Amino acid sequence: MIGRAMNFARWQVAKRVGRQLPVVLMYHRVADLTLDHYHLAVSPARFEQQIAALVKVRRVVPLEQLLDAPEDGEALAAITFDDGYRDVVTNALPVLERHACPATLFLSTAMVGSAREFWWDELVRIVFETTLTQEVELDVLRSGRKWRIGPATRRADRARVVEELSGVLRYLPVQSRANAIARMAAACGIDLAMRDSHAIVTADEVRALDGTLLSIGAHSQHHVSLRHCDAATQVREINGSRDDCEKLTGRVPKTFAYPFGDYDPRVVERVREAGFAAAVTVDRRLLRPDGDPLMLPRIEVRDWSVQDLMRRLP
Predict the structure, then answer these.
(1) Low-confidence ranges of the chain (pLDDT < 70)
(2) What residue numbers bound the domain in which 15 lies?
(3) What global pTM score does this model have?
(4) Which of 8, 20, 6 lies closest to 73 in space, CA to CA?
(5) What is the pLDDT of residues 22-34, one digit of tens each?
(6) Longest dimension (CA), the chain
């Protein structure tokens, strides 16, 4: 407690004299994608530029060390990746190693080694890649509102359909969501076999990260909105992902990322009870050393130029 108070005092002084505040950067993917509807990907070339620029102005440290601010007010940063896409290992890790940057990869552990893609990627594929000869009706819950797409549906309208369907699917139970995706894929004639471009890490790939600069954190098992789950599901998803990570790496993970950034006081307490030392949100606010380490804010990084990234750092 005394150490945290001293850090807060240093934070206040640093702010007054214009020193840079600590920051957590949130990435998802490092890949060149033809269609990136959710803006999750940073190209490999752009990622190299961003990291090269970052290390010139900040010291990159593991996430759990971020609040241990040095007395000299040195500017710190932590790098995180959500979900568990394979391209973080194939494209991002070599860049991190060239620049000696540690980072954390948060795994949705039930998807590790999956033959299917994340549901949001499948949804984009269903709506945008289908080659329909007539209109079809997309019914998520077999009742209530329905969405229609056809050969004449414009791109902008397809994007709207994806956004609206995402808003519904995000809060469904895991099996109900999977059933809805399967029905829509069948209606649109889409094969949901995993594409190499959207592959998720395997268990062997996770184990091979031991000794690298990429450490593993937990991200629930099924990437569910924990704030909208009952207590039993929250405990199962949080503790289950912790235990899965331990089985994969031989180490109990110290860090957690809230799926979709959805959390509330109940969820935070369950993450605390599970033994995590730090947890990250998607909140856009300054990182204060006197704040709860289980509610750390992050800056979501997109395929920005170096100048755009630097402008967004506090």
Answers:
(1) 1-19, 69-72, 142-143
(2) 2-111+210-312
(3) 0.92
(4) 20
(5) 999 999 999 999 9
(6) 68
